[in-house]
Hints:
The structure holds two protein chains of two kinds. Chain A is an alpha/beta fold. Chain A has helices at residues 45-52, 74-80, 96-106, 111-125, 140-151, 170-185, 197-200, 220-226, 232-241, and strands at residues 5-16, 19-30, 34-39, 60-65, 68-69, 81-85, 158-162, 189-193, 205-210, 213-218. By secondary structure, chain B is α/β, with parallel strands linked by helices. Chain B has two domains: 2-215, P-loop containing nucleotide triphosphate hydrolases (Rossmann fold, 3-Layer(aba) Sandwich); 221-295, 2-Layer Sandwich (Alpha-Beta Plaits).
Amino acid sequence: MKNNNVIEVENLTKKFGNFTAVNSITFEVKKGEIFGFLGANGAGKTTAMKMLIGISKPTSGKAQVAGFDVFTHPEDIKKNIGYMSQKFALYDDLTVKENITFFGGIYGLSRAKIKEKRNELVEELGLQDIVNELVGSLPLGWKQKISFSIALLHSPTIVFLDEPTGGVDPITRRQFWEMIYKAANNGTTVFVTTHYMDEAEYCDRVSIMVDGKIEALDTPKKLKEKYNADNMNDVFLKLARG
Amino acid sequence: MQHISKSFKKVTAVNDVSFEVKEGELFGLIGPDGAGKTTIFRILTTLLFADKGTATVAGFDVVDDYKEIRNNVGYMPGKFSLYQDLTVEENLDFFATIFGTTIEENYELIKDIYVQIEPFKKRRAGALSGGMKQKLALSCALIHKPKVLFLDEPTTGVDPVSRKEFWEMLKRLQQKGITILVSTPYMDEAELCDRIALIQHGKILQIDTPQEIIKHYPKKIYDVRADNMYRLIESLKSFEHHYSVYPFGEFVHYTDKRDDFNPQELQQYLATKNHQNIKIEITKTTIEDTFMELAK
């Protein structure tokens, strides 16, 4: 891929029968970038994301993620990305430690590596007191922070976060974003969807999808200038309301 | 609601909570997942017994007069709980019949909302989009013309445009004389309520009008920005006089331990840390700032 791009998408389209869920979108995401992928419910975000993580085959167009083609190498994509969503949590009836070990195994890390990563994670998140607790008994905020760390366990090139902070309390939401900043600072690319427009401001660049198309894509600052808006919420309202 | 408590096994979901809601008020329960909002709603709608305390809704006791309460309240749970394999129209008709009324009788009340989904009235509820499901659920909760409407996280996971439209609908319902209790994890929605209760870990942190709650925030908040936000947060947190440092959209909200704080001093400190394009300005307090301070 050219210019250090981790995602390159060209005219990517997905149709379900007569319905075009994703309509010829084109964009790229650079290494180490925090890329916000916004849009109204039903605009096609989830469908687009599914194609990018290799679990849904596009109808037409081109896309490469972490250097692999979504048509021909979806399995390689899955190995080289991290993924976390609001719904896909961890195993509630395994402990924090067991979850880390389990997912480390799934990603094919050696036992020694899992142990090393686990100790790192415990240290970094301050999990010492809860490492042997069942995940099901933890507050949502903790679960989401641990999920995020586990999505980074195999040091992926890029991590996809699908509404990671929905329903999370305001303090934890901010701690979560500090983790995102940190990951990006270490060179991990972050692709994130959110309905919190203050979080859109934290992104390096933001795209806004409307009815299957990318209607706007730029830095938050430039989008606000272009749409003559005070904040990203206003930008979003102006665009998505049409 | 007086001294209500409720535990599930080891977890105390609601811990000695008391509040009242006036007739015609739009009252918000504001707090994150797991704060106890749903448990409070389920106790008030007679779906769950409290361990301790008493509560009345529309003048009826939640234990002794549960049947009257059920006839007088509308409840929209957080999870979509209509019949997926009935059509839009069949669902609405079903709820009207259960409550001994008809769609025609109370059509005026739901018209505003229902017209938006009426073109799809032959579609099965399970095949509707998220926004349309929400409008149908609200229509069903209103079809018997309740005195009190309970809406449990109606806007969670909903995009900002649909959220704005939903709140406009709520305001119109309030004007029709319905008392509304709504819960939400979105702090920006708090400012749209007449009064709010901030809640976390089953405890109420504060109850008042949004304006009063903001007024009671003890500190001056400064918007700080610089080119590299991640480094800026790190630097602010290592400034010895910092009291709180929270990213807030394009700025960082900064408060200082001292009352005689001079922003010039912080500006100089950040300059020594090699930050570029530093800007520091006093800013308005929001409900979210207050919540974080109280939840600390």
